[in-house]
Amino acid sequence: MALVISLLLTDKLPNAETYVTTTLSGSLLWVTWPLVIVTVVVYIVLLIFHYILRGKFITLAENPQKLKNEKLWDFLFFTTQGIITVLIVPIAGVLLAYAFLMIPAATAAMFTKKWAKAVLIGWSIGFVACVLGLGSSYFFNFPYGPTLVLFLGLFFVCAMVLRCLLSRRNLNSKGYE
Amino acid sequence: MLQLLHILGWPFLMCLIIGTILAYFGIHVLKRDIVFINIAVAQVAAIGSIAAHLAFEVEEDALLSYLFSLGCVLLIAAFYAIARRKIIQISIEAVIGISYAITAAATMFLIGIAPGHAHAEEMLAGKLLWVTWQHIVLCLIVFTSVAFCLYIFRKPLSKISQNYEGAITQGLKVVWWDFVFYALLGVVITLAVRVTGVVTVFSFLIIPATISALFSAHWGLRMFIAWAAAAVASLVGLLFAYFFDFSIGPAVALFLGVVLVIAALFSKFRRINSLNMVK
User: Fold this and answer.
1) What does B205-228 look like in DSSP terms, one character per residue?
2) How far is CA A95 from the centre of its chain?
3) CA-CA to A48 of 20 to 30 Å: which in A4, A79, A90, B2?
């Protein structure tokens, strides 16, 4: 519905097409140092907040019925998620923000159920994809946002293939097939 | 009045046709928990269209462009069917969501390399106002064929939608039937998105089916409720867009949302009333 209302509002705006495209693809190339510093400070604060309350947030994700004030923790989770999104979308665009949210986490989830390991795998994938994506976009003059997402996607597809192969090998070694 | 009919007649008819076929698919999609299937498949179809443009310089409405889109949709249908069976660690919804991000990025990448083909806003909002009787006839033929296939294959498709694990234990070839389902849905979405845009198709797929779920669990009744909701929202949305000068695709989507809110409130009051009566 939010997207529908955005589209209806753009009917009344001049240069609506540019507005929609910018919201989707962001303006990462034109990011300034002050904005980077603000983002780093806010994200570190949120990281500390989530680290201190990690027990509650993990329970919220895994067994929400065990929490006393489930709605309050839901509210806190979505508020922090909202702050992160508000800061990142104008810079990176909806697509890149979504890709960073989903792809490293889903890739990690295919190989481990432990949170610490999953975070490490996710960070590593995100970091390597950033370096490869931005590097190739700089050297080969590709659009940076889509190139970055494509590298994240490449990791995801490779992880899926690897997961299938590992599952098959495990099944074979146990004599199920 | 005549002018109103002349401008909104074809778009309204198109909304009814798309609403009918997508209402049925929507019930399946909700049961399977794959709500993002629409935007993912639409994006894949767009890649096919852009690839055809880059390779053969054909326009968006050319047959070759449709064939390329269809080819890409069949490939992604096979991918989803296999992924659902083989990757059990993450949900198929996550795979579909991520495939959307990747294909959207690929689309923007191709546009970045060869600009001037697609427009982000047009793909989202569609061009429902400019629908012609040729579009209506094409959609009618294709959607009727798809509906015929759905009728023939209704038993295995329903079984898989209701209970995937149960279907496996019953010996159904789930990968094959999933491929059939995604391919049929893909054909409908590919065609519908070109006319009404991603946002409207997404709304027609999810909202009427959700409204119907509030009132019934029976397939036939759910279809009727979903179709009625789609028809009312289309009519009011088109009139709203006409009188207040808005894009008609997003306006129809907005009123589908309004109908959902009203239906949810009505359902809630009905439940409270029946509880009071029992007391």
Assistant:
1) HHHHHHHHHHH---HHHHHHHHHH
2) 9
3) A90
Residues B67, B187 contacting (CB under 8 angstroms): no
Token pair for B230: 């789609």
**Interface membership of A28 toward B (CB under 8 Å):** no
Q: What does pTM read for this prediction?
A: 0.82
* Whole-number pLDDT of residue A177: 37
Residue A157: alpha-carbon gap to chain centroid: 16
Distance CA A84, CA A174 (A): 45
ipTM of predicted assembly, 2 dp: 0.81
Span B101-119, pLDDT tens digits? 898 888 888 877 665 555 5
CA distance B48 to chain A (A): 17
B115/A contact by beta carbon, under 8 A: no
CA dist B270 and B52 (Å) reads: 52
**pLDDT of amino acid A18:** 67
A127, with CB counted inside 10 A (0-12, 13-18, 19+), is exposed
Question: Which positions ≥6 away from A60 have C-beta within 8 Å?
Answer: A67, A70, A73, A74, A77
